[in-house]
Write a structure and sequence with these properties.
463 residues, alpha+beta, Uridine Diphospho-n-acetylenolpyruvylglucosamine Reductase, domain 2, Uridine Diphospho-n-acetylenolpyruvylglucosamine Reductase, domain 3, Alpha-Beta Plaits, five-stranded antiparallel beta sheet, 15 helices, globular
Amino acid sequence: MDETTKENFLKALTKVIPPDRLYTEDEISDDYGHDEINTIFHLPEFAVKPMTTKEVATVMQCANENNISVVVRGAGTGLVGGAIPTTGGLLLDLSGMNEIKQLDTDNLTLTVEPGALLTDIKQYTETRGFFYPPDPGEKTATIGGNISTNAGGMRAIKYGVTRDYVRGLTVVTALGNVMHLGGKFVKNSSGFDLKDMIIGSEGTLGVITEITLKIIIKPEVTMSLLVPFPNFKDAIKAVPNILRSGITPTAVEFFEQNVIKYWESFSQKIFPEDGHQAYLLLSFDGQKEAQIEDDYEKIAELCLEHGAEDVYVLDDVKQQEEIWSARGAFLEAIKDSTTEMDEVDIVVPRSEIVSFVQYVHQIATTENIRIPGFGHAGDGNLHFYVCRDDYDQKTWQEKLTKVFDALYQESKTLGGQVSGEHGIGIAKKVYLRKSLDEVTYTAMKKIKQVFDPNNILNPDKIL
């Protein structure tokens, strides 16, 4: 960016954003240069913290007029570089737009700003007897970020993903215009569904400034089962039988013993019922205790029939919270066990989970590299983490590229896709390109051009 453009843009920004919410040069925090995975670093030339839709719209008008690239950021908990300003330009920090604006009990909706944290939405709804079901692992992520990647989480098997709970959006376009998409209504067959196009677009099509979420009545009863198996094959092969039983668990999570060991080292705690090779962790929820008990007892018997070594009913609230908390910390535990890592967020048909996990083990052995992981066995979304450990930079990059190429090709062969819930960002776009046919990829590019004719919104992400 030349100095004249910088000066003109800064002048325009100072007319819109007060000095205490406008940052340049040394005022820009290093936190703005990376996300949670921390493998890519690049700072913006400007950063602003707008507080209203009007401010966002005016900033976008200024950016478009000056041809300045814009990247939107929430809490920075992403894992694919989606919120990193890799082309410099302007970073739009929406973390200050975090108000929970309205709970509408008649329409069962919650209206919030994009910077509201998932944990705050959970607390706000549940203390009032309501429930926002999507449950991504990172509870300090913003709802705007969740919508931008269509985050899934552990409860997707029963309740669906973020997309299924977005009723309405206010979106500022790249040109600085404001769109109101969807609303508090349940059904809509009124033209193209632009709302669903914005969801999952990772800040490349527009800036979300207000959200209307669907909520439900909070389940009165929650129960969990921890089910150990002698090996990962038996554990995963039990899942289709569970899903065919007519009982839908709230979550079905899969992990192996090595991940537990990393968690124990990380947390300095002992995992309950440790010592088994593989586990399924299931939860059930509903309004009637008798029904939940009947459901989990049937599933427990079914697991034992299909190779489980035991079934532990987590009827103690403290133990239940401890185990689910451990599951939520697996990513941090793996990250703590190595010098650097990168992640694979692959989704495959549930019938192919065994084949894919087996392939991961094979690649780890062949390449002599650690690839621990875990996954949502109920929906086929698997998370594996390639660990650098003591490899030098050159060897690490060679191995990482080779492993990624192999795993993404295998997922394509098995009928899967590049990302189940973390998105594409900059880190995975080369693999998305390989996974899509030419017609689909060209259609995505044309959609981007219509929404963002000057290519200023997150310009080098996804495509």
